[in-house]
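Subject: Protein entry, chain in single-letter code together with its fold tokens

Area: Proteins and the way their chains fold up in space.

Attached in line: The record itself begins immediately under this heading.
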Amino acid sequence: MRCYIAYLRNDTTAWGATSSGLPIQVTLRAACPPLLSYLCVHCPGLTFIRSAPRVVATDADLVLLRVPINPTAPIDVRSWEYFLYRPRAHQLDLLPNPHPRSFHDSATALLSREDGAWYAVAALSGCCPVYEGNSDSIIGWDFHLHLYRSSDSEGWITMPMSVEELLRDKLAPLPGGVADDMLYHETTKTLTIGGERGKVAWVDLWRGIFLCDVLSERPVFQDIPLPVPARGNWGRLLQQCDPNYIRDVTISRHKDTIKYIEMEIWSPKKLMKTPDSYLEWVHGKPTVTEVIPAGWKATTWSLPVPVGSFTDWQPDCEVEVKDVTMDASDQHHYNLLSELSGSDTAPTLQNLPMAYPTISIDGDIVYLFSSTKTRHMEKLELVIAVDLRNKTFRGVAELDVQKNYVVKPAFCTSEICIYLRKSAAHQ
């Protein structure tokens, strides 16, 4: 799910107003994966120059979105307003502004409580080292937990949090060249697990997960390191600018399993034959003996919830792109992939560049982003669905390049469409 600036009305449309009284309209345009669902935001009094509305988090049938309200102001929390969108109830509620608190979208969770009767927003910020005395030895890290409960008139509150047992440094230490420049935790995405005490997972896709019962009286972190990097990514560790390029973590629909995927991606390679004679060698005439095509391998892991220990991570599926099969009876997708892969015979995924995995909350489907050009088409942005357990291609959807996926695809997984279908079935 993503936000898109558009005027659209249907049976999910909700209306509200900004703090200055400007009208704002939000509509959900639902789609079946691998197609993307959109939140269409329409606010005729605002011009979105520097940044656009964005889906921050979802839980059940609730959506938290952020809307920039001052196009000329510096990009900070004072320039944004947060709204809670309820598509079934056609409600769009303005939240109190969290200023002077500041936190990133990726570190923010939404928790639906009592079937949506009230909700909470939890966000994590800060990552400050704690030193031992006057030495340079780091013995812990400090954070801030920001919490808002819609049922509490107190508004936003902030609590100090800390990590004192540095498990990640013991189990998967960083390479020497980058260790001194990296924080212990940088949240890449946040998952809502829920439960009675409101468990949230703050995910650093390079290093590990902080689990926290944010609605308990005294929240504490449970630090869960990720499995050690795959061999093909040892040289890439922390040097790839965006860990989303090769990794993802999600929570299953029933909130009973945390799922993790890591991709190893390689470019085409030429293996050169050793010259048979000294003269061949001295004249620099190596012979190509084999060309290894580009490709990828995906490995998934699972962690049962409630989480006992990081040792409970279990390997699940391992798939290479060359092993993914296609169903020729699906003529539309079959013909499209033949064109995209540049194949005049059977289509193959191996010729398509793919990255940015997004794990489905259902089963073993992973959605991969691909940007490609073909012989007869302009540049295309695609989402490709692959069933990792059965090693089968499940579908492809073309993205609208006008909606700005070129830099980096930013998708927010959601189960909101399931709630809408249930609501329609009971009407």
Summary: The mean pLDDT is 87.
